[in-house]
Amino acid sequence: MRKTRQKYYDFFSKWYDGFIALHATDKQGVLREILAEHTDAGPGDIVLDICTGTGAALPPLARRVEGKGLAIGLDFSSGMLRAAGRKTTRFPQVCLVQADCERLPFRSGVFAAVTCSHAFYELKGDTQTRTLAEIRRCLKPGRPFLMMEHEVPENRFVRLLFHIRLLSMGRKRALQILRHEQTFLERHFDRVIKVATATGRSKIYICTGSTQGEARFDPPGAPV
After folding, report:
1. What is the per-residue DSSP string for 153-180?
2. List of domains in the chain
3. From CA 51, how far away is CA 20, in angstroms rounded?
4. Rounded Cα–Cα distance for residues 73 and 99 (Å)
5. Does pTM surpass 0.85?
6. Residues of the chain whose pLDDT is less than 70?
């Protein structure tokens, strides 16, 4: 199943940006700028964007951590990462990593922020829970995980299409979580705040854990 999904995203990566551009309401990338701003990251920080796809969130993050900072884009699709590489050639702060987000290959407590934009519900089943646990492990104490997702459309027909899309991808669990997003996130983080975006069609959840240090396990060979 994993290899099938990888091949799908590798193939789709060639047309992904063009497909998004056909119906995008955020043609100037304002939402990703807002997302980066809410990380509160600064020069020298290390930040991570999971399920980075073609890297739309990476340039704003790279500008936030300018200098000796690092903006890491992680995805399991090599095709998506190649597209992200072409998009971020002007940003020496950007590093691309191919890996699964449910098994992050990084040291514990290293990131000043972790982001995920319009991709969390692409994760299937228990992968969501394992990914949140890994994010919590890799964040510095008290630093945020920011999840940006589409609001459920108000228009009944568009909302139906939105739900059909999730179900067609085998995301029945995602539909269940959509009804109780904040409660779901609060199972993994001590504080969860919902922020409306300028367009009103997306939302950002800012999730933080305890400011106290926690006992953590580092995967063997974790590089960062």
Report:
1. PSSHHHHHHHHHHHHHTT-HHHHHHHTT
2. 2-16+28-208 (3.40.50.150)
3. 16
4. 10
5. no
6. 1-29, 151-180, 199-200, 211-224
